[in-house]
Amino acid sequence: MNMRQQRRVVLLSLVLSMAAIIFNFGTIALSFLLPTAKKNSYGGKVYGGFIDDLPEVGGEPKLFPQGRFWLVHDEHGITALHSSCTHLDCRFNWDQQSRRFVCPCHGSEFGRDGLVLRGPATRSLDRFPVSIITETGSLVRSLGNRGEPLPIKDLLLHDSTGPRTEEGKKSVVSLVEVDTGRKIPTSADRAVE
Q: What is the DSSP letter of 145?
């Protein structure tokens, strides 16, 4: 290859590199101009149903595949756990018999609270912020970015003692809203077997 051909190859490589850099910056800039994630899809706000339709305290967690989370209801309130294992992002399942989340890929196990019980995962499940809103979108209750269970017992129409409202009166209808655009890593981990 002569000197002139070498210069053309170097110049072409330089032009292609610059084009790739401009393209990457352009896609980043475009992402700021495009609308945010749609409601009821992963990366946006997803409805977890009406508060009174939630499983009972201690009941089987409910999977919301469109939001990639499990909704867990325990004595402390409701928690939204990301449905991906913290080991290699495999989707895990709820095992009713062992009452644990079990990853089919490599066998990691997590408690109802999302804390890792058995590896190879070394980190507990990530969480999403949960809010309670009215049908018109007004905020009833939220804990923001902390990720701990959101207390809801006082908002439920029914508990173990029966209805909480007077006969014939209807309470404000409340919806569970999970913000899947704000993942919260869990800081507290348990010793892994």
A: T
Tokens, residue 83: 């449905």
Token couple for 41 = 């899809």
H or E segment to which residue 23 belongs: helix 3-33
123 near 186, Cβ under 8 Å? yes
Instruction: For residue 82, give both structure tokens.
Output: 């990301």
Structure confidence at residue 141 (pLDDT)? 82
Report in angstroms the alpha-carbon separations of 80 from 52, 67, 174. Answer: 16, 10, 17
pTM of the model: 0.67
More confident residue, 101 or 169: 101
CB atoms within 10 A of CB 74: 14
pLDDT digits (tens, 9 = 90+) for 34-92: 655 566 667 788 888 888 778 788 889 999 888 888 899 988 888 888 888 888 878 88
pLDDT at site 169: 38
User: Tokens 């006969």 sit at which residue?
Assistant: 167
Rounded CA separation 184/21 (Å):
32
Q: How many residues are present in the chain? A: 193
Determine if residue 103 is left, alpha or beta; phi over 0 gives left, psi from -120 to 50 gives alpha, anything else beta: beta
Residue type at position 81: L
